[in-house]
Amino acid sequence: MDTSETYIKMCDCEEIQDLLPYELKSKMTFKYADNWYPHKNCEYLITIDGIITQEGIWLPRQDQLQEMIDNGWTGDLIRRFYFWGKEYGFQTKAIDSMEQLWLAFVMQERHKKHWDGEKWQHI
Q1: Phi, psi of 75 (to 5 degrees)
Q2: pLDDT digits (tens, 9 = 90+) for 80-112
Q3: What angle do CA 19, 15, 64 make, to 5 degrees?
Q4: What backbone phi and psi angles, to 5 degrees, belong to 43?
Q5: CA 20 to 30 Å from 104, out of 18, 19, 22, 60?
Q6: d(Cα 64, Cα 111) in Å, to the nearest integer?
């Protein structure tokens, strides 16, 4: 699981954070719960579902990223990812992990954005 500063920065956007599944929100009770990373700029505690948790940034796992764009047939998802990767993803130096690569694919497919190394830009 990628917990690098780059991946945290890439995930710290409303397009991804708004997709945090409800069932995960209700289970966030620990500082580092699975793929929940504490926001380094915040020391406040927030309440989610009546449970006090540290405010944080959700870091989607690779399977969660794939579910964001899966249309029910894995073969089509792999085909789309492959052709996108040939054009953009596999040749960029800004991507350091599979999570970052799949996140870049999700952001292009759903929001027409690409990562410039610092922030998401509209294509």
Answers
A1: -60, -40
A2: 888 988 887 666 667 889 999 999 999 999 999
A3: 40
A4: -115, 0
A5: 22
A6: 17
Q: What's the distance, CA 42 to chain centroid?
A: 20
Q: Considering just the CA atoms, what is the radius of gyration of the chain in Å?
A: 15
- List the domain boundaries for the chain: 61-123
- Please state, in angstroms and rounded to a whole number, the distance separating the CA atoms of residues 12 and 21: 16
DSSP state of 117: S
Angle between helices 62-69 and 74-87 (to 10 degrees): 100
Q: Which two tokens stand for residue 89?
A: 């993803």
Task: List the structure tokens of 107.
Answer: 């952001």
C-beta of residue 13 within 8 angstroms of C-beta of residue 120? yes
- Joined together, the tokens standing for residue 94 give 């800004």
Per-residue pLDDT for 44 more than 50?
no
Mind listing the pLDDT tens digit for each residue in 55-81? 677 888 888 899 898 777 788 888 988
Q: How far apart are CA 8 and CA 15, in angstroms?
A: 14
